[in-house]
Model the fold of this input.
Amino acid sequence: MSATLATLLHQVEPTWRMGLVERLDELAQESSGPWNNAGTGHAALCELNYSPQRPDGSVDVSKAIDVNEQFLVSRQLWSFLVANGHLPDPESFIHPTPHISFVWGADNVAYLKARYDALHGHPLFAGMEYTEDPAVIGEWAPLLVAGRDPEQPVAATRSLDGTDVDFGALTRHMINRLVDTGAVSLHLGAEVRTIKRDGEGWLVRGKGEQGKFAATAPFVFVGAGGQALTLLQRSGIEEARGFGGFPVSGEFWRTTAPEVVERHQAKVYGKAAVGAPPMSVPHLDTRMVNGKPAVMFGPYAGFSPRFLKNGSLFDLVKSVRLHNLVPMLQVGVRNLPLVKYLISELLASKNRQLGALREYFPGARAEDWEKVTAGQRVQVIKKVPGRGGVLQFGTEVVTAADGSIAGLLGASPGASTAAPIMLQVLNRCFPERMDEWAPALEKVIGTYGISLAEHPQCAAEALSETAEQLGLRVNH
Done:
């Protein structure tokens, strides 16, 4: 998020100078790291949690369309950066990878068919395919059907517009480019401890490998992942009051066995278990990291009081304030199925976890797989008037009334939608400059200010142009 915001700011104000502070000794070692997330370019092509089923059996696809639009904005930013030499060969961070939704059981098959019917006529989903034929599914993703009961009803959709993204590599590419141009000074191994008002700006203090440090700035963005909540609380801004965080950890099983990797070239998403958070939707994913292929399955949700993978066991406790204690307790009481689900996941044996894998890959062998710990996520707890504490599974931009400080809370859909979320930050923090910046933003993002859902020709052109620039498929 910070890399994306800095990139956009450099495009609209190339004379501005920015400081980027990272508490670890390397960039992108938390949630942006390739093994800390699924690497899915979240375009809602296969993620079923973005298209819930209504009581009457129809499917609400409004969120799916919104997420797809947002990802296309990010693709346009990356395409611009590649075309102008600001990013290296796109193969170093993005790869064409089919996105498949796969379900079994009569009710789930009916749901997936209703979802397909609601989506495939939309210009952003025009290339989507649907089948209930196990033989066709076997051509798309052989591991899904080999060894499966032939009498079991199954269905799948496939979109060849899908991608696998190494967000860690992308983050490093963007920041290194900004450092090389002199737009950003990078400070590694330096942890921000306090953010306090300093006149019309902010005084940022912390401690690093070189000792204590302090800096002043008229604008601060807190892109510290799960730790953003704590830093926003320390800033004292009124807008951060009432917010809390619910940390959720996760694990994946990973394999590099050639006989598995060679037979699975797709990202396959299913339906989440009852009571599971959206980030726990099971998926069997092709990954390409540092030029080497792998397959991951998960995530298996768990609980840790840390707000970062490399955080403190006291993060959750330190985030509790008088203003968010009641909302946090209300969320705990209202989400008992989620609590029950997390406890069951924590107690799950290795055999039970492998059993979940075999629901997608019946022929999976335990000896081919190793367990890896995913990045830490902190779901937003928000105080809503008239409703009290509410657990949110999206992202939340928090800004001070004067726009001098902003931060991002939440997880899903995360890095895939970094560009539109950071455009939101610009709008909220620099409203008086947006008209002046519009021409530059239109060069960076060709559809800036245009609703792609309402302009199908623009959507088709943006898909085609970014696919060509990024070396992706054009499936329309």
About this structure: The chain has a mean pLDDT of 92. The domain at 2-469 is CATH 3.50.50 (FAD/NAD(P)-binding domain). The first strand starts at residue 18 and ends at 22.
